[in-house]
Design brief:
The chain contains 2 helices and 13 strands. By secondary structure, it is of the alpha+beta class. The protein is globular.
Length: 196
């Protein structure tokens, strides 16, 4: 099932969106061209993300190389990132991310919209919500397991942490323009946050 996490870290089921016929094979350059056009026409994340879901699903179906489990997590970090596209002065980053079994991330936001397609394994997104606007303290707001074939999108102020379930994972990640002065790592126990 596909999900959308809003700026309050509330998770909503995503209803399928109509999409015009896409070329097959649908290559990464087709996808990036479509994405460029969509961003220009639909700048609001809540409206943009649902339009991206069918395109990402079609891209993954058309491009088996994106699904190859050939990215090995770093033994010490527990994760690895492969950047597929990141152009200076262009607001899109495309990555594949691998996590070792049992590895987890800190609690963080992205300060941009993001979309994660689960390619291999299962990850649990623990959602968090600020106690009050602009305050560093956060409270747990539920969790959402994401399995192979699922897609989850995040609005810019959504807060989460990720844990790989009982095996290694691989995801396809897409991010918009990041405001690094608003990207935070949170410490729920201490009620503090610092730039991430």
């Amino acid at each position: 099932m596909d999900w959308l996490v809003d700026d309050r870290s509330t998770c909503h089921p995503l209803l399928p969106q109509e999409c015009p016929p896409l070329p097959s094979p649908y290559r990464l350059y087709h996808f990036l061209t479509d994405l460029d056009s969509l961003i220009a026409q639909v700048p609001q994340p809540e409206e943009l993300l649902p339009l991206l879901y069918p395109r990402v699903a079609h891209l993954l179906h058309s491009s088996p190389w994106l699904q190859w489990p050939d990215l090995e997590p770093d033994a010490q970090l527990g994760w690895a990132v492969q950047t597929l596209y990141d152009e200076p002065d262009y607001p899109i980053t495309v990555q594949r991310v691998a996590w070792a079994a049992g590895a987890s991330s800190p609690v963080h936001n992205h300060a941009t919209w993001g979309l994660v397609a689960q390619v291999v394994g299962t990850e649990v997104n623990q959602l968090w919500r600020r106690v009050a606007p602009n305050e560093p303290a956060v409270l747990a707001a539920g969790d959402r397991p994401i399995q192979e074939g699922d897609i989850i999108g995040f609005c810019p102020e959504a807060i989460h942490s990720i844990a790989a379930a009982d095996g290694p994972t691989l995801t396809f990640n897409l991010y918009g323009p990041t405001d690094y002065q608003r990207r935070w790592q949170f410490d729920p126990a201490a009620g503090t946050a610092h730039l991430f």
